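Q: How would the structure tokens look for this protein?
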Amino acid sequence: MSQSDPKTLVSTDWLADNLKSPDLRLIDASWYLPHMNRDPKAEYAAAHIAGARYVDIDDVCDARSALPHMLPPVEKFLSRMRALGIGDGHQVVVYDGMGIFSAPRVWWMFKYFGQDNVAVLDGGLPKWIREGRDVTAEPPVIRDRHMVPNERPDLVRDVTQVAASAKLGDHVIIDARPADRFKGEAPEPRAGLRSGHIPNSRNVPFTAVLEDNGTMKNPGELRLIFERAGVDLTKPAITTCGSGATAAILGLALERIGVKYALYDGSWAEWGMYGDLRVATGEA
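A: Here is the predicted structure in token form.
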């Protein structure tokens, strides 16, 4: 297991040791794709790690956008976090019900808004439960906490910036979707989207950076996985996926190995929708 780092990834042992710290704030960020037939809010209500607050990425988002769970305006993020009692001086740990799936998206949002002391729970709720650790249905006690934002625009890219990077090659674009969708051999789950990938991008399915038990592979293995996929780790990266969720898993992996990255928030939900944007198919 990789060493715990309160700014990226912490183990279940680390969380158990720090669970009663007054400055710890725990977030259940479980979110699932429709075909998974799971209700994250109901699951949270039935069983969560003590003290955890629930954050829905489809709620803490930009409601003005037609694209799914886009980065929210700063005022909305601050108000939602204050209502959950999360603010300056807290150590935040985010987990989800898959192991590592949607939690990195919320981790990335905190990073974007200038909160550096935030980590993902390695292996998430499934690993916590497998180890026989306690869960509860009791809601947490909430007290308001102020948060001062410090937005980091370097952590996000829009479609114009991604299109420019695809042409110029100044960034390496890494796609977290499964290989068959990247190649254009499988249809997209969202209706109306073309199949294929952003030209000059590389494919590292998010599952490739995870162990079978839902934990993240160690930094040495991560570096090899990216290199074998043709990723030039000397360049800054742009991560992308279907809707900007699993792209954050690659962002977390890149941060673990010290590679600068930004997340393409619109991802394929945006790129695949516009006919004037070039689409490549087949291998990278």
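The two ends are 31 Å apart (CA to CA).

The chain is about 30% helix and 10% strand.

Upvote if useful.
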